[in-house]
Amino acid sequence: MACTFSFQVCTVLSSVCRKEGLTLPGELAKIISEKSGRNLRKALLMCEACRVQQYPFAVDQDIPETDWEVYLRETANAIVSQQSPQKLLEVRGRLYELLTHCIPPEIIMKGLLSELLSNCDGQLKAEVAQMAAYYEHRLQLGNKAIYHLEAFVAKFMAIYKKFMEDGLEAMMF
């Protein structure tokens, strides 16, 4: 099924480029499709970024990440770097920034979860994933996304800080 979606995204990318008078190599279209997670809107934006970066296209050219993805990764790194009320306030501002730039809260949650899980071990991953599911469900029910995103971050900070402190104590004994 994923192969079919990838093919469809490649077909649309090639068609759009052809209508714009551009020649898109099939290999690059496939790479863009995969890097976009087979998300057509994201694939089109990535293709446009590639065009701005370099034309004619090259199969091995870099495909730039979107600014908001970089910003989201930096936000996740800030969460992991320090767990304090000041950092939570800073992260809240960053979440507002993403929301005001029309990044859907579900995408923010998914991106944060993905980045945060890369800093967790097995047992902690399960707890964080379960917690994310809870807050994502609440996000669907509520009308103020920032409350649910911030609650997820605060809960993660508490769990992560305890995990780190327990690990330090275990190393000392």
Automatic annotation (TrEMBL):
<dbReference type="InterPro" id="IPR050238">
    <property type="entry name" value="DNA_Rep/Repair_Clamp_Loader"/>
</dbReference>
<protein>
    <submittedName>
        <fullName>Replication factor C subunit 3</fullName>
    </submittedName>
</protein>
<dbReference type="InterPro" id="IPR008921">
    <property type="entry name" value="DNA_pol3_clamp-load_cplx_C"/>
</dbReference>
<dbReference type="Pfam" id="PF21960">
    <property type="entry name" value="RCF1-5-like_lid"/>
</dbReference>
<dbReference type="Pfam" id="PF22534">
    <property type="entry name" value="RFC_C"/>
</dbReference>
<keyword id="KW-0235">DNA replication</keyword>
